[in-house]
Write a structure and sequence with these properties.
Layout (H helix, E strand, L loop, with lengths): L1 H37 L20 E2 L3 E5 L4 E8 L12 E6 L5 H9 L8 H4 L3 E9 L4 H14 L2 E5 L7 H15 L5 E6 L2 E3 L4 H6 L10 E6 L28 E10 H10 L9 H13 L3 E3 L3 E2 L15 E3 L4 H19 L10
Parallel strand pairs: 4-5, 4-7, 5-6, 9-11, 12-13
Antiparallel strand pairs: 1-2, 2-3, 3-6, 7-10, 8-13, 9-10
Helix pairs in contact: 2-9, 5-7, 5-8
Function: Transfers N-acetylgalactosamine onto carbohydrate substrates. Involved in susceptibility to pore-forming crystal toxins in conjunction with bre-1, bre-3, bre-4, and bre-5. Involved in resistance to the nematotoxic C.cinerea galectin Cgl2.
Enzyme class: transferase
Protein name: Hexosyltransferase
């Protein structure tokens, strides 16, 4: 009888202990699912990809062309096209400057510096062709006349009928790719560069020799901005992106819009794919981040690229290929000539020039 009493006391204790352990175990199992709900969405990039889009493709019709997104299509006219001479020389890069309409003086400074054959061997030997792309609003008759005269004088400006605004920047960048693909088929790489970039194009030749740049595989080249940047959902922000167009909480890796290059096949793929995405006005993210990730196009980091003015100090002797800066025209010219002289001294070269050519 005493043994039975002991069992009757122990049994409820054992049952309660077993129930308590089971309860704690079930609580631990639930914890990861709660954390997963709080974590960023996985594989969310494709959520904005409209595979069944019936929009037409971005395409060139000759004197006119269309840039097409899933929700917006815009038609444009090539108002002036420079002559692209056929050559038997090795033609690697078509570099096009996204230039503001009224930047007459800046264009002349660029013609005197890195676009000048006397200052850039890669331009002199025909491996790189440099042009400007300028937008003209239909109502700007006086400005149109001046830019047309400039284009005919120098033969290096692509003119398009468009409002030259930040909102149109994504279209401008796509126009650069479209011109390269349809109007200059001999170039293996198409580059876009902003007009406030200090640029030493001869240093690209070393990257070719080292295999860092290769025009054969499908690739994008530039300064890689790592994945994880927050997305602006405030409609008043110039970088606003609606969740319907891109539902991720952060951006994928992309290339800084100051300067990037696409192999010909990569540019063709990007142009064909715009119909599958709604318009987003964050140009570099959409082209080199979201669409590149959609298509599986690798983005490759280039050395010696600097995104911010403070990256280079006044007496800094950093080796520069491209640097985003706010220098006015004469300081820009002086900095370039000083950097060119240093580069040529290191290479055992001496020739420099400030004349156009």
């Amino acid at each position: 009888m005493p043994r039975f009493n002991r069992l009757s006391v122990l049994l409820p204790i054992l049952i309660f202990t077993f129930w308590f352990l089971c309860l704690k175990s079930s609580e631990k199992v639930e914890e990861p699912s709660l954390l997963a709900d709080e974590a960023p969405k996985q594989n969310c990039t494709k959520n904005g990809w409209l595979g069944g889009s019936t929009a037409p493709e971005t395409q060139d019709f000759g004197s006119e062309f269309m840039i097409s997104f899933a929700n917006i299509q815009k038609n444009y006219t090539w108002l002036y096209l420079p002559t692209i001479e056929e050559t038997s020389k090795e033609t690697d890069i078509l570099m096009i400057v996204a230039s503001r309409t009224d930047s007459y003086a800046r264009r002349n400074i660029m013609r005197q510096t890195w676009m000048n054959k006397s200052n850039s061997e890669i331009v002199a030997n025909g491996r790189m062709k440099s042009l400007f792309l300028v937008g003209l609003a239909p109502a700007d008759y006086k400005v149109k006349k001046m830019v047309m005269q400039e284009a005919k004088l120098y033969g290096d400006i692509i003119i398009v009928d468009m409002d030259d605004t930040y909102e149109e920047l994504i279209y401008k960048s796509l126009m650069i790719f479209l011109f390269g693909v349809s109007k200059a088929p001999q170039y293996k790489i198409i580059g876009k560069i902003d007009e406030d970039i200090m640029f030493f194009p001869d240093k690209l030749m070393a990257l070719y020799e080292q295999g860092i740049i290769d025009s054969t595989p499908v690739s994008l080249y530039g300064l890689v901005i790592p994945a994880g940047r927050d997305i602006f959902r405030d409609k008043t922000n110039r970088w606003y992106v609606p969740e319907s167009a891109y539902s991720c909480s952060q951006y994928p890796a992309y290339l800084s819009g100051m300067y990037y290059m696409a192999t010909r096949e990569a540019a063709q793929m990007l142009l064909k794919s715009t119909k599958h995405r709604d318009f987003i006005q964050v140009e570099d993210v959409l082209l080199t981040g979201i669409l590149a990730e959609d298509l599986g196009i690798p983005i490759r980091d280039m050395p010696k690229l600097y995104k911010f003015p403070h990256d280079i100090k006044k007496n800094d002797n950093k080796d520069i290929i491209a640097w985003h800066n706010y220098k006015n025209n004469i300081p820009y010219l002086n900095f370039f000539m000083k950097g060119l002289a240093r580069y040529r001294s290191e290479k055992g070269l001496t020739r420099t020039s400030t004349t156009s050519g």
